[in-house]
């Protein structure tokens, strides 16, 4: 039996268990133009299972594969896999990153665009001038030989040259980018030869360009046309405007693109973030200042409508806050409630009450028109050197947002929000209006419809029907592979500790029970223990209870490391895995909970303390309500809002955390879920055991807290994991 043709792109000797079958099934789905939802246990080779058949399909059908993630660790893994593939079957691969991180001169996107246009105009004009100079020399020679027609033609050329000289004088006074100019005027073939000799990272490209005084970002864009593989971040695909440009850069119609989303359980939140729109009070103030300086006849109606919205925003958060709450506002954005069940939100009502004019729609249209005119003037001034930076038109931003607010504020899945924060410099409180998108398929469904096919993969993508509903994926092929490694190499315990409800976390008995469990888990682990909590605050609480201060907590517990919201988590991870007998306390909502491997001795035991429900807020209630209305016909035992918005994402978060350990066939370890809600005890709506996939539920072993140490002692003893005598119970 001949091997599948896609295996020519497989860079290693032997696939993992199930990997060969997964590659065949993905290949078959792509040949049918079918999307794929692919769940595979951590460490089972999902990336290559998707990438290998996608590359074969793209090679045979003249398409490009775009693989994307929002996890930095996975981005590095993609680069390693792509480099391995090129040594087996050469491919042209590009690793792409946003302009802000690759710019050598530190300008924003709009400034860069204006600089680029001005620079290209200058280079093209200089080139045209050289051609005309050459032409006039030829005509001069011909006229000296007595050609009267040549003399007349030369006069016309000289007139054109005079015009070009004047144009160049203007351009030389303009702002240009010397690095981009070098791109256009030098021979850069060497860059593209270097680029495709291997898989280069954006940092590699930046260094190459920095040494040669070139613009690496623009060179990289030029090198993307028709490549086999592009590695990039989510926003290049999830932001509709960026996606349109991105496909132009790779010179592909969407129907010629195969997308592969890694850690695809994160697409929901990422798409929601890209779809949501906001406008701050400061931007409104800047827009009104802009209009005050304008003598255009449209300035008055524009100012009328935007000032009414600005004052209504202040009214809305003042009424919601009151004096005491206003004094407690910090420097981070905090939502205030403005939504109403039976009418428009408080901001809209205040706007309608304050507005006096000739019609909101008409005056907003005039504001948008004027904003476009002001924006064009800003670009002209920067391009021609009259301004040192490219200003953004706040009037245009504000008018477009207010128009959207009025048009879409009542649409299904759009939730109006007002937030406040304190300015650290002035100590003043100011506000922000936001249209929060509850259902992300409004962004993602168009993407999945227009590309040739997509593979969405994750260790925690099930239930597949929920993923299809939320993201707008239609009739996808579904693949699910559990951990193919020996079952005797792992134990997964559901420990009957008190449920760590928010209302009970301060209970002394609950804290003592959890602390006792953690002592046992750490003591009876022959090596490192990874401990996840619902928040950094809870991690700090139990780190302190067990005596941790970043150093030794006692000979029986070893070193206790504490993660925090401002911590350099990669540096902390390196210190932790370099230890032999340590525990790391962190949050389930931090970056160490997914996309990071703790192989072998890096961590033997992982503990998840509590159930990491998202913070229950007005936004979360709005998401639940939107899902309830959008998916009311779905056949689910519980209400779809709770299941889609709360329970399923929570269990995915837990499953991601326990997947940080046991990453290979020879690895072994213990996974502990510490909360009664994980057990078979009846906790009503809050029981989460039933939300785990069937094969994972079967592995969950209920155990009393006091018996955990004996179970761990037996398991690790069977694996001869203790050096010397095991700890005494």
Q: Oligomer, anyone?
A: single chain
Any idea what the radius of gyration is? 30 Å
Write down how many β-strands occur, each being a DSSP E stretch of 2 or more residues: 18
| Overall SS class | alpha/beta
Strand portion, in percent?
A: 5-15%
Sheet with most strands: 7 strands, parallel
Average pLDDT, to the nearest integer? 90
Estimate the helix proportion, in percent.
40-55%
Overall geometry: globular
Strand order of the largest sheet: 3-4-2-5-10-1-11
Distance between the termini: 56 Å
| Total DSSP helices | 26
Pick out the low-confidence regions: 550-555
Report on the architecture of this protein.
By secondary structure, the protein is of the alpha/beta class. It contains 26 helices and 18 strands. It is 48% helix and 13% strand. 43% of the residues are buried. Mean pLDDT is 90; it is low at 550-555. Strands 3-4-2-5-10-1-11 form a 7-stranded parallel beta sheet, sandwiched between helices. It has a 7-stranded parallel beta sheet with strand order 14-15-13-16-17-12-18, sandwiched between helices. Helix 22 links the parallel strand 14 (559-562) and strand 15. It starts with 18 loop residues before the first helix and ends in an 11-residue tail after the last helix.
